[in-house]
TrEMBL record:
This is Serotonin N-acetyltransferase. The keyword Secreted does not apply. It comes from Catagonus wagneri. Residues 60-221 form the N-acetyltransferase domain. It catalyses: a 2-arylethylamine + acetyl-CoA = an N-acetyl-2-arylethylamine + CoA + H(+). Signal peptide: none annotated. Controls the night/day rhythm of melatonin production in the pineal gland. Catalyzes the N-acetylation of serotonin into N-acetylserotonin, the penultimate step in the synthesis of melatonin. One of its GO terms (molecular function) is aralkylamine N-acetyltransferase activity. The keyword Transmembrane helix does not apply. GO terms for biological process: cellular response to cAMP; circadian rhythm; melatonin biosynthetic process; response to light stimulus. It is found in: Cytoplasm. It holds the Pfam family Acetyltransf_1. Keywords: Acyltransferase, Biological rhythms, Cytoplasm, Melatonin biosynthesis, Phosphoprotein, Transferase.
Amino acid sequence: VPRGPPQRPLLKLPPHPREVAAVGSMSTQRNHYLKPVPLRLPPGIPEFPSHQRRHTLPASEFRCLTPEDAAGVFEIEREAFISVSGNCPLNVAEVQHFLTLCPELSLGWFVEGRLVAFIIGSLWDKERLTQESLTLHRPGGRTAHLHVLAVHRTFRQQGKGSVLLWRYLHHLGGWPAVRRAVLMCEAKLVPFYQRFGFQPVGPCDVSVGSLVFTEMQCSLRGLAFLRRNSDC
Ligand SMILES: CC(C)(COP(=O)(O)OP(=O)(O)OC[C@H]1O[C@@H](n2cnc3c(N)ncnc32)[C@H](O)[C@@H]1OP(=O)(O)O)[C@@H](O)C(=O)NCCC(=O)NCCS
């Protein structure tokens, strides 16, 4: 039977006088035991964390969103829209609804695992946006409706919204059935979307409280050459 190391008492007891007397003669031996010896772990037990491969999150990642991302989406929406106007394009249930039905029409930008910008879209099958288009996904539709683009406050004005929108349009370019992208935005953002090829169609039929919107559309035909290189 292999003998293990001597059991230590659970309570620290005062040393026995014989033990005290023996300390002098054992000192050399004790020094030997105090010498550092490399610890060998049994097979199957991982080494110290400093020796393990680091599992770091990617510095920057683009991917389609999942319903599990809804909380992160809504956190950005809350700051970007609700704190400003009391409304937001999609509530949490609607975010989950679209990320369940058509996650492939969403795109998120994650920095070290944290969502910093996103677009949520669905398909629409009519010429113009209506109240219904705010909550519906029409799988046979040839129009991608961008419900919301938002960038986390601390990451704005750094080009992230522009990069994400370019990547999203590029992604849509990989879908031969999708002919155009549409969105509604406040008048102040019309010039921003025009940079990406969106053109104003006219005032949008949909209003939210006192907010009115311009409807914008962008043809994806010009992006046909990107179809072979679609992302997510
Ligand atoms: C609009 C938004 C997505 C732009 O993303 P961003 O990463 O900050 O934008 P970029 O750095 O790529 O580009 C900056 C451009 O955005 C436009 N822009 C951003 N915020 C704007 C605002 N409040 N009013 C007018 N234009 C604005 C401008 O054209 C700006 O360019 P400029 O600085 O030369 O004027 C971002 O500001 C945001 O999330 N805002 C709150 C949510 C929102 O309004 N979303 C749009 C819903 S339709």
